[in-house]
Amino acid sequence: MLICIVSCGKKEVKKVSEESQRAQESFQLAETIRNAYIEGNRKALEKNTTQDCYRELIGAIKDFDSAELEFIPTWVEIDGSVVRLTVSWKGAWTVRDLEKEDRGIAVFVLEGSPLKLAQVLRANPFRQPE
Questions:
Q1: Contact status, residue 69 vs residue 89, Cβ threshold 8 Å
Q2: Which residue ranges make up each domain of the chain?
Q3: Which of 77, 67, 82 has its CA nearest to residue 34?
Q4: What is the per-residue pLDDT across 87-115, written as a single tens digit (0 to 9) for each?
Q5: Helix (H) or strand (E) holding 60
Q6: CATH code of the domain made up of 19-122
Q7: Global confidence as pTM
């Protein structure tokens, strides 16, 4: 009888916290921007970044034949409407049959609602190695 009561009881569903939702949104945004960069989709980059950040990104992006870029989120800091997403990244770019590799740590400063990339601090993964 006790087993029936325990197994038939309602399961308590916890609500996802607002901070957890913002963190998940930041992960999705980083992935969207990564894909847009690899595909050379400037409209998607513009849509998901602030105007100043878009200008900075376009100025930093160099032409490449193909690219692989991997992001591993390592830390999320939420301060009001600003989210700082720290990612460890590793990339490989092919330019005229030469492959270049690089890696680093970047901090994406995300703002607004919905989140948009406002700034890239530290090692910018969108600048392939020279």
A1: yes
A2: 19-122
A3: 67
A4: 999 999 999 989 999 999 999 999 999 99
A5: helix 51-60
A6: 3.10.450.50
A7: 0.85
